[in-house]
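Student: I would love a firmer grasp of how sequence relates to backbone shape in proteins. I am handing you a single protein, as its sequence and its fold in token form. I am told such tokens are a discrete way to write the fold. I hope you can help me see how the letters and the tokens relate. Take your time, and here it is.
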Amino acid sequence: MSPPHSELIGGALLAKRASILFSTLRSRDAGYKARLVREVAAHICPRLADGEYQAVVDSVFSLSEEGLNGAHAHLRGGNVVGKIVLAAQAATQAQADALAREHVLD
């Protein structure tokens, strides 16, 4: 299996002061992976649970053909800050919007 290839537009990254970080655990031994899981459980999970760390959610769309099309259009618009979430059980756009408001960082 050959690694995936992609084209990188460096100027766009520099303009947004963005960075790209790559990591893989496939080549790591089981001991390293076990230590990593313990460290995440000890240091990251408690902060997620108490709300210190939160995901930045840009928008929430329903997991439907209409929602997928809307999410793609929003992404192509280029003004996304945070994650675009596809919610399997958001029955209405109002529910999806309320969910997004609950998870957006100020």
User: Anything to note?
Assistant: The mean pLDDT is 80. Residues 58 and 79 are 9 Å apart (CA to CA).
